[in-house]
Amino acid sequence: MTHSLVCPETVSKVSSVLNRNYRQFGKKHLFDQEEETCWNSDQGPCQWIILEFPQRVRVSQLQIQFQGGFSSRQGRLEGSQGSEALGKIVDFYPEDNNSLQTFPVPAAEVDRLKVTFEDTTDFFGRVVIYHLRVLGEKKV
Fold first, then answer.
1. For position 2, what pLDDT does the model report?
2. What is the pLDDT of residues 29-57, one digit of tens each?
3. Cα separation of 39 and 16, whole Å?
4. What tens digit of pLDDT does each residue of 50-65 get?
5. Distances (CA, A) of 40 to 5, 20, 70, 133, 137
6. Apex CA 79: angle with CA 17 and CA 108, to 5°?
7. CB-count exposure of residue 70 (10 Å: 0-12, 13-18, 19+)
8. What is the pTM of this model?
9. How would DSSP label each residue in 20-39?
10. Cβ neighbours of residue 51 under 8 Å, at least 6 residues apart?
């Protein structure tokens, strides 16, 4: 059964936060399920999110809701187990709109994920995400 893999014990890291305003634009807003809050990166050529799960997980889907005009034309999902180096799982190609977009992920068992956003639609390289969901199964 597929369900959200992000839990309170999941550690998240992001490449940047707009003007270092963590209260208004911090990473916690990626997972709070609120329609009015978002993670807003600062400017730069490449933005990313790292998730470290408390246990091994099998990822099957990635869901992302961008703010139109602040999305990415190409994304990359990487993963690893334990202390292994990150390895590419899949490239994905978001549309520049406000819809919740779903990207299938080939079966990957990991305890760490990195989502990288390349070729952003914003001239300054900013990315705005209202919702990030990682779906799959927790391994026992």
1. 82
2. 899 989 899 999 999 889 999 999 999 99
3. 9
4. 999 999 999 999 999 9
5. 22, 10, 9, 16, 28
6. 130
7. buried
8. 0.93
9. G-HHHH-GGGGSS--SS--E
10. 6, 10, 11, 12, 112, 113, 114, 115, 134
